[in-house]
Amino acid sequence: MADDMGQVPEVQAPATASGSKYAWPAERRVLGTEVRRVDGPAKARGAAKYTYDINRPGLLHGLILRSPHAHARVRSIDLSAAAAAPGVRATLVIAEPGAKVMYQGDEVAALAATSEDTARDALRAIKVDYEVLPHLATVEQAMRPEAPVVFEGGNTRTSDVQEEGDLEAGFAAATHVVEGLYSTQVQTHVCLETHGCVCEWDGDRLTAWVSTQAVHGTREGFAQSLGIPQSNVRVICEYMGGGFGSKFGPDAQGLACARLAKAANAPVKLMLDRKDEHLAGGNRPSAYARIRAGAAADGALTAFDAQTWGTGGAGQGAGFPLPYIYVFPNRRVVHTDVYTNAGPQRAMRAPGHPQGCFITEVLMDEIADRVRMDPVAFRLKNLPAEAPNAMWRRYFEMAAAQFGWSRRHATGDVTPGPIKRGFGCAANRWGGGGRGTRAQCEILPDGSVVMRSGTQDLGVGTKTLMAIITAETLGLPVDAVRVELGDSNYPFSGGSGGSTTAPSVSPAIRVTASKALEALAARIAPGLGVAPESIVARDGRVRSTASPSTSLTWREACQRLGTEPVSVDGEWEAGLSASGTSGVQMAEVEVDIETGITRVTRVLCVQDCGLIVNRMAAESQCLGGIIGGIGFALFEHRLLDPNTAQMVNPNMEWYLVPGLSDIPDIQVTLVDQPGRGVIGIGEPPAISTAAAVANAVANAIGARVRSLPITPDRVLAALRTDRAGGTE
Amino acid sequence: MNHPTPSSRLVYGAHCAHLRHKGMYVTSLEAADAAVADSYHATSYWCTCTQKALGPDGQPVAADRCHPGSGRACCAG
Predict the structure, then answer these.
(1) Which of A50, A388, A440, A643 has the smallest number of CB atoms closer than 10 Å to its CB?
(2) Which of A513, A421, A400, A536 is nearest to A467 (CA)?
């Protein structure tokens, strides 16, 4: 395969399951084309019902009282006034007297009332007496020797030393040595749809409409937490407004919602607001790395010695892969997790990778400057000789040609005027293999087709993906297929994480649709006087390859089913999907050295994802990832007051995300590799944008900003302290 | 509808039965895939008793904190 595709030797793409009768068709009619989302009109009209839109008869509104303190013990809690308030139907203590709260936003109590305003008024009537305890707002505070021990076992936890090669020999062989401190910030998920759910009991059976990335996993979570059989729980999520890794279970608010609904004997809606979301909905940990690295005169990397740390908030880890992608034959990394009194981290779009990518890629550019090599040539020299399914070498060359990398100037734009321009680049890797999904397909006598699976569509186009594959397999237009998903009563599918949804779901749909067609053929072939194996479906017709004159419209064929539809189950099959993606991005920026403001003007992305199912959706994933990466590079930053550990920007006014005017010209080149089957692409495009932007900024201004986000003050500070010649 | 479920990735073993992380719910192609399995310890954990990253005793939950030998009263073998 590598030779067929002209790939470099590092490619080790797996062979397709060519022996399967359900293998992807060699001649693809719909697959790989640009298909608009089948649920786009419903979303545009407002007909699509998200969790927030679910309004059951007699619905109550739930709210959670959260700790205003970063660290405190609950001495007492009195809900009597709240419980007696007009309209309040149920109250719940979450943090019992004696319990500690570990961060601002930690859940203390909850209640349900007849309206949101009533609930909010009643929430203010809850009396909590806190014993405020010492807190740790920053990694610096937590790492001080004299810091109070807030977390049992200590405020920090250092990993084993990861070491390979001979570090001393590596530095001895180095002609150039670079040292620096690099860091990335805490970024919150900022899901457009906040976390939350609607819970309704019917006796001992719970139905929960949840904004979740794991319909079946959330069913298991509710059952486990509530001590009821999983068969008594139904979780529904037909539409969802993003999760980015933060929505894998009922969460505290889900559990509170279910308990309030049970106590009130009425359905309850409990959705987080934007402040709750920032405080308690998860975040990407910070990352710090103090690195000393060496390279030989010819540009070959020789040594890498790093101390790293970061905070995942209250008791959660903050690891990241380092060094990222490139080969330092002699290396040592020691990582320390630092615990602070802040909302705990959760998985966020390629956990650890954006941090590791930024730190390594910025370091790579610094070394390239020392060696006086072009950054792309320097990277090509230091890529792994062999890596599974990694095609960085080819992609760097493709990207350089498309981007016009040859026009890159040396570090520091020497043109006159305050606006400096620069180019930067970075690479990424990811797994993206999934399995295990099951599906059910019905072909009905009137010709309609239903494909059903218990997966969920996070807003990325899974529903359209299922329609495309079904349509391709049955020879029908995409809009002839009805897709049903997002219900734990449907066949099992795993959670949507790790970019596993498309590679998990796609084979299941292909197999199930194929089996449905086989079942249809078996039913109608005798009446047509042909062998079932000769039946094919294409262009809305059903034909026999053995008898060219035997041809029915799809509807005519289905009418022969009489009153009994075709209904078959199918499941994921190996060989139709795979794991392992790689990609390269290049960015162009303009930096105003008078104001320090950076504007990303252009990003180019070369990315593979195996067989492309829907080119439009795959490109959309890249666009979203890159825009998120720009937010990470320039804007997003959870800011805590160092004195109180309270978040000072828990909103979308001061927690900045990219707006339309911040989105550059983005060029996406997807490398189609149908022989590999489907590979997930949700995560990889989000990994390398910030690193490419940071390197472009340094190329523009001749000074290096080693900390994200690259805010104007940091640009100006870098110019003051680290300015190269020729920028004035 | 009653559909069978693939073999569960909910691994109790040496850890508390209430401990959860994302990987338990994602049907990844390769459990050992470094990119997904968080071999660099970026995993976020939660407890099914609280559905939070803090257990019933108010302390953080994690693989190395939630096992029978941890001395936590809330730990279920």
Answers:
(1) A643
(2) A513
State the pTM of this model. 0.95
- Give the strand pairing for A330-338 and A301-311: parallel
Measured CA distances, A134 to A141, A155, A395, A719, B31 (Å): 11, 12, 51, 38, 40
Distance from CA of A688 to the nearest CA of B (A): 15
Q: Which two tokens stand for residue A232?
A: 């008594």
Count of CB atoms within 10 A of residue A525's CB?
A: 18
**Max Cα distance, chain A (Å):** 88
Is A316 within 8 Å of B45 when comparing Cβ atoms?
A: yes
The residues near A564 (Cβ < 8 Å, ≥ 6 apart) are A445
Contact A317 B10 (CB under 8 A): no
Lateral strand order in the sheet of A535-538: A535-538, A541-544, A547-553
The pairing of strands A205-210 and A233-236 is parallel
β pairing state of A283-284 and A107-113: unpaired
Cβ-Cβ contacts under 8 Å between A and B: the total is 182
Taking a contact as any Cβ pair under 8 Å apart, which residues of chain A between 612 and 631 contact chain B? none
The string of DSSP codes covering A336-397 is EEE--SSPPP---SSTTHHHHHHHHHHHHHHHHHHHT--HHHHHHHHS-S--TT--HHHHHH
Query: A383 and A2 in contact (C-beta within 8 Å)?
Result: no
* pLDDT, mean of each 10-residue run, chain A (728 residues): 34 54 94 97 97 98 98 98 98 97 98 98 98 98 96 92 96 98 98 98 98 98 98 98 97 98 98 98 98 98 98 95 95 96 97 97 98 97 80 95 98 97 96 94 98 98 98 98 98 96 97 98 97 96 93 98 98 93 97 98 96 97 98 98 98 97 98 92 97 98 97 97 52
Two tokens, residue A483: 């897709």
Q: How many CB atoms lie within 10 A of CB A439?
A: 33
DSSP classification of residue A23: P
- Tell me which chain B residues have a C-beta less than 8 angstroms from the C-beta of A494: 25-27
CB of B67 less than 8 A from some CB of A: no
- pLDDT per residue as tens digits for the range A324-363: 999 999 999 999 999 999 999 999 999 999 999 999 999 9
Taking the CA atoms of chain A, what radius of gyration do you get in angstroms?
A: 28
Which of left, alpha, beta for A572 (phi over 0: left; psi -120 to 50: alpha)? beta
Integer Rg of chain B from CA: 14
Residue A626, CA distances (Å) to A227, A245, A450 in order: 42, 17, 35
What ipTM is given for this predicted complex? 0.93
Q: Judge contact between A634 and A596, C-beta under 8 A.
A: no
Helix H or strand E encompassing A548: strand A547-553
Q: Are A392 and A441 in contact (CB under 8 A)?
A: no
Q: What is the DSSP string of A451-480?
A: EE-S----SSSHHHHHHHHHHHHHT--GGG
Q: Is A597 exposed, middle or buried (0-12, 13-18, 19+ CB in 10 A)?
A: middle
